[in-house]
Amino acid sequence: MPKQTVKLVSWNVNGYRAVMKKEFLKSVRDLDVDILGLQETKLQENQLTRAMKTIDGYDAAFSFSTVKKGYSGVATYSRLTPKAVRHGIGVPRFDDEGRIIELEFDDFSLFNVYFPNGQMNDARLQYKLDFYEAFFAYTERLRQQGRSLIITGDFNTAHNEIDLKNPGPNSTRSGFLPIERQWIDRIVAMGYVDTFRHLYPDTIKYSWWTYRFKARENNAGWRIDYFFVSEDMIRKGWVKDAFIDNTVFGSDHCPVGLVLEI
Q1: Which CATH number among 1.10.730.10, 3.60.10.10, 3.30.930.10, 2.40.50.140 corresponds to the domain 5-261?
Q2: CB 227 within 8 Å of CB 8
Q3: 3 state SS of 253
């Protein structure tokens, strides 16, 4: 039976309405992906436009924050028809912020996730750590059932010093705190593989730049957007490529991608 190539992209758009004004639909056409996950859409359901709901050739799924308007939110578009679409992980404390969409396919389940940012205060940092704990407890239950998993999105944490321009000055800032980096270590120890770093162990490339200090112009960025897969997908030879496309503008993040051959 011939293998099927599946191209996936994840992109934190930092406001869907804003990115729509910056050639977003052209960028989607140029990326030519089978599955597209967006984070930080900052939308309520009544703000969805026809253009957002009906990108040609894609089925769309959205999650919205119910606790704060103009906040968080994710959207997933797929040319492949999922067997099921689920929102959240069954924990209202986390589901209420509209951060998780799960698409179940025959061969794998895909999670599009906007992980919390811990920079505001200690309470939000703890919320972020608790979110990691609850989310990966949920995914581990699926993995124990024999599911192959893809987890993509903005993790809001750079893993190692190679993953940001200025590791020293940022070592006391949320996003690169030891306690956050240890969570990425835990994910790896559980058997999830950072596909970009797996294929390109020494490549320095970033996916987010602050709008300040001409950071993108100077490439003073962070790699905080990932495609993790359960290690069985590596063993099966399904992972063919991973990429970071920093030629695409419109947000303070750029798209990151994964190519599968199943």
Answers
A1: 3.60.10.10
A2: yes
A3: strand
Task: Report the C-alpha gap between 81 and 180 in whole angstroms.
Answer: 35
pLDDT digits (tens, 9 = 90+) for 73-108: 999 999 999 999 999 999 999 999 999 999 999 999
Determine the Cα–Cα distance for residues 250 and 78; give it in Å rounded to an integer: 21
pLDDT by residue (tens digit) across 37-65?
A: 999 999 999 999 999 999 999 999 999 99
Q: Kindly state the helix (H) or strand (E) to which residue 124 belongs, with its residue range.
A: helix 122-144
Could you tell me the CA-to-CA distances from 105 to 111, 181, 212 in Å, in that order? 11, 30, 40
Using the predicted structure, report yes or no on whether residue 1 has a pLDDT greater than 80: no
Query: Strand, coil or helix: what is 192?
Result: strand
Q: How far apart are CA 60 and CA 221, in angstroms?
A: 30
What's the pTM value of the predicted model, to 2 decimals? Answer: 0.97
* Residue among 58, 87, 105 nearest 260 (CA): 105
Give the pLDDT confidence score for residue 86 in this predicted structure.
Answer: 98
Which of helix, strand or coil describes residue 194?
strand
Task: For residue 163, count CB atoms less than 10 angstroms from its CB and return exposed for 0-12, middle for 13-18, buried for 19 or more.
Answer: buried
Instruction: Give the integer Cα–Cα distance in Å for 11 and 39.
Output: 6
What is the set of active-site residues? 154
The rounded distance, in Å, linking the Cα atoms of 65 and 42 is 8
3-state secondary structure of 78: strand
